[in-house]
Amino acid sequence: MLALLASYAFVGQLTEPGAFGELFDVREPIRLALTPKMDGQMEPEEWDPLSSSGGLESWMQWEPGVLYLAGKAATGRDIVWSLDLRGDGWLVGRDNLEIRAAWGPQGPIYTARLLDATQRNGPIWEESPLLEGMLQMAGNQTADSWLCEIKLLALFLPYIGESSKLALRGNAIESGGATPAAYVPRRTFPLTMSRDRNRGLPIGMEWVSEYVARSVVPGDSIRIRLNFTNPNRTARFDRIELRMMGLLKDSTTSTSKPFPSLNRRGRGFVDYETDVASTATTGYRVMQGKLTDANGQEAIVETSFLVAPAVVFDVNLPMNTTVKQEGQTIAGSVTIRSQTRLRVDGEFSIEVPEGWTAPRGGYRKFIIYSSRGSQRVGLQLVAPQGAQGAFPITFKAKIGDSVVQTTILLPIRPKAD
């Protein structure tokens, strides 16, 4: 069930951290790129577990420009996310976001506010900082608990991408209960966004993933090489099991093989190759390798990649446009990037909101001859006078009988006071 933005009345503000100052214990500080369905129904391994602290079960993952959060709390409790989006301290800068979710009459609802700690007279809350469309929700409720899934687009917020860092915590509190005042610190846990992670490897053993291309289209095959190094050659693994996780598990094959002997330099590699069914859904997915030694001790390596449509759109439009009383032209470009080894012929088009026009780049035919090649299209969009908010721009590529489309939000912000 998708949520609507709704007002929600909260009671007062706490002057002490309380539960927001307690340790928020995270299972894994390295967070993988992974795309969920956002339908309020969790399938096995669809979400990456985060924590059992704060009075709720929580999950968290990302993809470029997007943060995904999920929490499961007891009925009658609200879920409060405290996000330090640069990971530099809760009372530092203007990048600390509070998202509060509750179960409303028709499903999950939320309010959000941004903490501005740059003011000379002390931190203050900025109410309703998110433009419409920046946050999407889904959820479901049972007799004793409820689940809330959140998708947050980082439009004018700090960018979410590989190696970016943030800190967060989640809390389940009494419905309508108070949260700490602006000047009260909160204890968040630092996280790092990555496409690779491991746990349980012996000290001195390292690994990296290697791809010809870090994406695959449904109906094609993908090959992933895992390169291991252990200069002292102290690691002793017998076997490695390789499989896709979550939403890709049933669309691929798994394998188990002996772990290779390391050479004189302490190096060895394992290759994993699988066909991807044409019915596979697109999004970021994870491959897992489980290493086992003679005593049954295990180590895990995980790597994420993109299951992509035939083409993806790399959009380059300004994110800092401000409102004008007269109409204004917004210039940029989009690069159509092939994700297949085959030639791609298609028709490119744009859909803009009512009152907008696209005098340049609105339609054209394209041909991409080379394997995983690209083609750039210049754009010129004209916004109507006084346009303000986040506006959906849809990019489409018709390739044969299929259509690939992506919708982005283009923000036009009010002028600073």
Summary tags:
417 residues, mainly beta, Immunoglobulin-like, 3 domains, seven-stranded mixed beta sheet, 53% strand
Mean pLDDT: 94
Number of strands: 32
Gyration radius, in Å: 23 Å
Strand content: over 45%
Tally the helices: what do you get? 0
Low-pLDDT parts are 1-10
Count of discrete structural domains: 3
The quaternary state of the protein chains shown equals single chain
What is the name of the CATH topology of the largest domain? Immunoglobulin-like
Distance between the termini: 38 Å
What percent of residues adopt helix (DSSP H or I)? under 10%
Q: Which word captures the global form?
A: globular
CATH architecture call of the largest domain: Sandwich
Strand numbers in spatial order across the main sheet: 2-14-12-6-7-8-9
The major sheet is characterized as: 7 strands, mixed
CATH class of the largest domain: Mainly Beta
Structural class: mainly beta
Itemize the secondary structure elements and their pairings:
Layout: E1 13-14, E2 30-32, E3 49-51, E4 57-63, E5 66-74, E6 77-84, E7 96-104, E8 107-116, E9 124-127, E10 135-141, E11 145-153, E12 165-174, E13 179-180, E14 189-194, E15 196-199, E16 206-211, E17 215-216, E18 221-229, E19 239-244, E20 255-258, E21 267-275, E22 283-292, E23 298-307, E24 311-316, E25 321-322, E26 328-338, E27 344-351, E28 357-360, E29 363-368, E30 374-383, E31 389-399, E32 402-413
Parallel strand pairs: 1-13, 2-14, 17-23, 25-32
Antiparallel strand pairs: 3-4, 4-5, 5-11, 6-7, 6-12, 7-8, 8-9, 10-11, 12-14, 15-23, 16-18, 18-21, 19-20, 19-22, 22-23, 24-26, 26-30, 27-29, 27-31, 28-30, 31-32
